[in-house]
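>> Question from a student workshop board

For tomorrow's exercise we were told to take the sequence and the ligand below, predict the bound structure, and bring the output to class. My setup keeps failing. Could a helper post the expected result so I can at least see what it should look like? The ligand is acetoacetyl-coenzyme A.
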Amino acid sequence: MALIEFNKEGKIAIFTINRPDALNSMNVQAARELHEALVAFRDDDELWVGIITGAGDRAFCAGADIKDMLPFLQKNLPQRPWAMPATPMRGLELWKPLIAAINGLALGGGLEIALACDIRIASEKARLGVPEVTLGLIPGWGGTQRLPRMVPRCKAAEMLLTGKAIDAQEAYRIGLVNRVVPPEAVMSTAMEWAETICQAGPLAVRAAKEAMIRGSNLTLEDGLKLETDLEAYLMSTEDYTEGAKAFTEKRKPDFKAR
Ligand code: CAA
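>> Workshop helper replied:
Here is what the output should look like for this input. Compare the format with yours to find the bug.
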């Protein structure tokens, strides 16, 4: 049985972490499957937006599987510090948008998967945290880097140093999630956002994500150059010609990702 279900609904890819009995914690196989599914999504021209969620009603993902993944990393990380599946979504050059539909607990590596997404929709029952220090570790899938870049530094420090989880409302207040909705509305809300993004020019959406992510490591001047290069590329695409034509003709554009 697949530990990561990979379903397609039109242009939307849905990845479901499917280990509800272990609160969807990520064992080695699940991390490999997630990586492979994301590569398949990246390379499939028919898919424009991805949603990651967890099976069942308790957890999005309770992090790395402490009994399976952590021993694997303990054995392998010292020799191969950046090897897969050490950090999900690192180095994938995945510019298609990803939405985390956080249907419950998002802890440790689970929150880190959500942090690597672009939009986060949380259930009112969700709790989010990075408890790794309570195990004698630090977050190893990007939490020490992505969390302080996303929320006020004092809140990142509070979460990273105490390991205490916060509730969904607090996550919303500090800018860690985009929306908080009742549990039964998490997936439908994520689908609505995905469908809205699918209405826009897909190449433009990818360029916007690439500019945001690559630009965050650049000086302002270099970031502005990157933006100009991406804009020049978009102006050469069929989609931009169609977008401008549709505006003039007062109709919806028919984008083709070309
Ligand atoms: N790894 C392995 N198994 C896990 C797990 C995890 N991260 N989280 C939960 N489970 C398993 C439990 O072992 C239990 O399995 P059994 O029924 O076989 O005993 C099952 O899921 C249900 O969990 P609990 O019985 O513990 O449920 P609870 O309601 O009493 O507690 C919880 C819920 C507070 C989330 C608790 O399960 C917990 O603390 N889990 C660990 C969370 C954690 O520390 N995550 C970080 C992992 S390290 C990491 O992610 C490193 C990194 O950066 C990559």
